[in-house]
Amino acid sequence: MLWNLDPGWLMMAIAFVAVMAFFFGAALDAIMKDDGFGPIGNMLLFTAGFFGAVVVANSYGITLRNLHVAVAWGLGGAFVFISVLALIKAGIARMLQP
Fold first, then answer.
1. What are the pLDDT tens digits along the chain (98 aa)?
2. What pTM was estimated for this model as a whole?
3. Count of alpha carbons within 13 Å of 3, Cβ hemisphere only?
4. Quick one: 91 exposed, middle or buried, by C-beta within 10 A (0-12, 13-18, 19+)?
5. Rg (CA), the chain
6. CA-based end-to-end distance of the chain
7. What b/e readout covers 26-40, taking b as 16+ CB neighbours within 10 angstroms?
8. What's the Cα-to-Cα distance from 20 to each of 36, 42, 46, 61, rounded to whole Å?
């Protein structure tokens, strides 16, 4: 799906997802404070998780022709990605405490 987009549309999609991810990332940073990755780090993780989930869905043969299904896959992947990384960060922080 992503590979069939024109470069202009692909840049617009990445920009739109990045802007929306920044808003989610800033809100998540206000909630998680030191346990998070900062607003920019959260934005990068959300964006990577979003497009990573779309690429994984396409690699398994799931066609995302419907925009609602593609957004659902992307948001699900973004939140799973950042949740797993926050869990790993919390586990590492717990192991390093004396």
1. 677 789 999 899 999 999 999 999 999 999 998 888 999 999 999 999 999 999 999 999 988 888 899 999 999 999 999 999 999 999 999 999 87
2. 0.90
3. 5
4. exposed
5. 15
6. 48
7. eebbeebeeebbebe
8. 17, 11, 9, 27
pLDDT, one tens digit per residue, over 1-15 is 677 789 999 899 999
Supply 13's token pair. Answer: 């999609």
- Which tokens is 98 given? 């004396």
Query: According to the 3-state scheme, what is the secondary structure of the chain?
Result: CHHHCCHHHHHHHHHHHHHHHHHHHHHHHHHHHHHCCHHHHHHHHHHHHHHHHHHHHHHCCCCCCCHHHHHHHHHHHHHHHHHHHHHHHHHHHHHHCC
